[in-house]
Amino acid sequence: MILLTILFLSLNQIGVSSTDTGSGFPKDMNLYVTFPPILQHHESLALGHLRPLGWQRRAEAPIIEDSLNIDPERFYNLFVRGNRSVVIRGIVSPMDVLWTDTYLSKHYGHLNVTAAKRKQRLVDTLVMTPLKTFLQQYRQDDLYMNTIIPDEMKLETPFPSVINCGTIRSRLIEPILWISAGDTASLLQAHAQHTLHCVLDGRKDFIIYDLANHYPREFDLVKQANGDLFSRIDVDLVNAYKYKYLHEAPWYWTTLREGDCLFVPAYKFHQIRAHGRTLALTIDFAPTNIREEFLGTDCEKNPPVYVPLSQAPFLWRYEHAVRHLSKRTITSEDVRSYLLLLFGANEELHREIFRDFYLQVTDELDKKSVALPTGTDVWKQLNKDEPHEEFMTRDHLKNLSADSLQLLADILQKSARIHEHHKHEL
Ligand SMILES: *[C@@H]1O[C@H](CO)[C@@H](O)[C@H](O)[C@H]1NC(C)=O
Ligand SMILES: *[C@@H]1O[C@H](CO)[C@@H](O)[C@H](O)[C@H]1NC(C)=O
Ligand SMILES: *[C@@H]1O[C@H](CO)[C@@H](O)[C@H](O)[C@H]1NC(C)=O
């Protein structure tokens, strides 16, 4: 059974699941799959027609690997700034032995997580469900988990040392925990953020396209509000006539097993297939401007072998399966650095990206009918005196007075503390 997975985190789609009767057949948990595929030519058919993605052209080469002792500065300079994927094997502790279904259910089963149900092509429905219920269903049903990892689980989750200091540590966005069973395939996609993808149990195969173009038209792309891109190509049954471009697009591959991580730079198109029971942790961090040097005064020469994820300063944390800002006290300087993160590698911050951030932060306040200025109003106030309505520049943001940032700081703080107040105090 093939399950299409897609990172589609629209808050509006989260509902509370009822127990659901699925197909009832256990999924195929076979880990022995040939990858990259051996291509089969048929004279009368375009190569790879109605075959999975990857059958349309021979893989160029494996994605390069670096040593597990790679230091953060080298990682940043060669790969993050260099815009290159890299595999680092054995840098996180495998979780297959500790995090069995029984253990997870016993210790964390009461926590609400988000799971995605395959409803129709391209759009999956997110449901909020206790982890225990998910674990009872995922080996049979078309269901996989993708949740911002709950704080309660972070002590047992490894935080890779290669991103635990300097420039990268200060740009951490959020950690997502994925659990799936059987053969599942993601869409062909590219994220607006950099991602470190670590497999904690099972096996995942990756296809990474190496394209010069940000938005290849041939991929038939859909863009999400947060800047992520995904392709409408059916990755299980590719129409090789419609998507002829796949015969020309070079791709690289790797297979990750427990303990291995892959760095995928922002805007690299990739597709993932999981086999067996897989547990994976993906850590997103904001791209930097290419000119930005590595700052690493907090980097240790011999970092500890194990650091728990609870020590990582993420922008977002999880609470009842919804994103919340991690900080409780939010100053105008925090606002400036949040907005700088939203710039990513760009010289400009576009209004749409800001509005998406603002909607996420204020969603719950809004649901409680707390009176707030709209995202557009806040944007206008931040961006007044700028010649363009559509975007702001880095210099403009760096120059903004603390006073002009205070309004947004107040709103963000209200939102961060939403569960510590009664409604009339907000
Ligand atoms: C999970 O969500 C349900 C429904 O919203 C809620 O009643 C329950 O208290 C939540 N459980 C936890 C541990 O937050
Ligand atoms: C990195 O490479 C991708 C294509 O593989 C490209 O779209 C993107 O613009 C590049 N990023 C930078 C910062 O050069
Ligand atoms: C930023 O402030 C400096 C000094 O006040 C000024 O010279 C510069 O023009 C300002 N830049 C922008 C983009 O507002």
UniProtKB/TrEMBL annotation:
Keywords: Signal. InterPro entries: Cupin_8, JmjC_dom. SUPFAM superfamilies: Clavaminate synthase-like. The keyword Membrane does not apply. PROSITE patterns: JMJC (PS51184). Residues 138-302 form the JmjC domain. Residues 1-18 form the signal peptide. Gene3D superfamilies: Cupin. It comes from the Eukaryota. PANTHER family: HYPOXIA-INDUCIBLE FACTOR 1 ALPHA INHIBITOR-RELATED, JMJC DOMAIN-CONTAINING PROTEIN. This is JmjC domain-containing protein.
